[in-house]
Design a protein that fits this description.
By secondary structure, the protein is mainly α. The protein has one domain: Rhomboid-like fold (Up-down Bundle), CATH 1.20.1540. Helix content is 60%, strand content 9%. It contains nine helices and three strands; from the N terminus they run E-H-H-H-H-H-H-E-E-H-H-H. A three-stranded antiparallel beta sheet has the order 1-2-3. Strand 2 and strand 3 form a beta hairpin. Helix 6 packs across helix 9. The chain starts with a strand and ends in a 14-residue tail after the last helix.
């Protein structure tokens, strides 16, 4: 299943979401312009390495990606879910929210992998937070999803609550299943960072508060 878009309308332009996507793309284009040695050094310098942690890397790692699929997947999910969460919080709060979710995700990863020397990069933890906030604010929205049926493709509207809880369950099962394996065996996927970011998003969207016009409004897909 490939999510294409949601059915929840936005009422303000997703300025911060577009800026975040643009920054991630620009950093990635710079990253791939480097030769192999420089690229590895760049990732080691700005990615999170828990065993020799530089606290600035908790922020810089959010804007690095391991390849085109990693980048496109993250940015696609940010585009689908980010505009509505930004609409609810407002531009300034959403920027703070996004960074705090990324920080929370990184801290969970560092706590559970304190001796790891493998660089961790990507916006997944912050975007997981956006998805957690979306679940809280728009549980009755629908996600238009591309589904293969034998040799044909069709689209179906999947309830957001089902898709997001299913995604979260995968992170939990994968994270628990990865316990006891080496970082190489894990394939570099920070499952618990995703879990931490998702839960942080669910909490922070309450703590930061909604814009006035959203406080007593249910999502339109109810």
């Amino acid at each position: 299943m490939i999510p294409l878009r949601d059915t929840q309308p936005s009422h303000s332009p997703p300025i911060v979401t577009v800026i975040l996507i643009s920054l991630n793309i620009l950093v990635f284009l710079f990253q791939i312009s480097l030769d192999a040695y420089e690229r590895n050094f760049f990732i080691a310098s700005y990615g999170i390495i828990p065993d020799r942690l530089h606290y600035s890397s908790i922020l810089t790692s959010m804007f690095l990606h391991g390849g085109w699929l990693h980048l496109i997947g993250n940015m696609w999910f940010l585009w689908i879910f980010g505009d509505n969460v930004e609409d609810v919080l407002g531009h300034g709060k959403f920027a703070i929210f996004y960074l705090l979710c990324g920080i929370a995700a990184a801290l969970v990863h560092i706590l559970l992998n304190a001796d790891s020397r493998v660089p961790t990069i990507g916006a997944s933890g912050a975007i997981a937070g956006v998805m957690g906030a979306y679940l809280v604010k728009f549980p009755h929205s629908k996600i238009v999803t591309l589904v293969p049926i034998f040799v044909f493709l069709t689209t179906v509207e999947v309830p957001a609550v089902f898709m997001l809880i299913y995604w979260f369950a995968i992170q939990i099962f994968s994270g628990v299943g990865s316990i006891g394996y080496s970082n190489v065996t894990k394939g570099g996927v920070a499952w618990f960072a995703h879990i931490g970011g998702f839960l942080a998003g669910m909490l922070l969207v309450y703590l930061l508060g909604s814009k006035e016009r959203f406080r007593n409004r249910r999502d339109y897909s109810w």
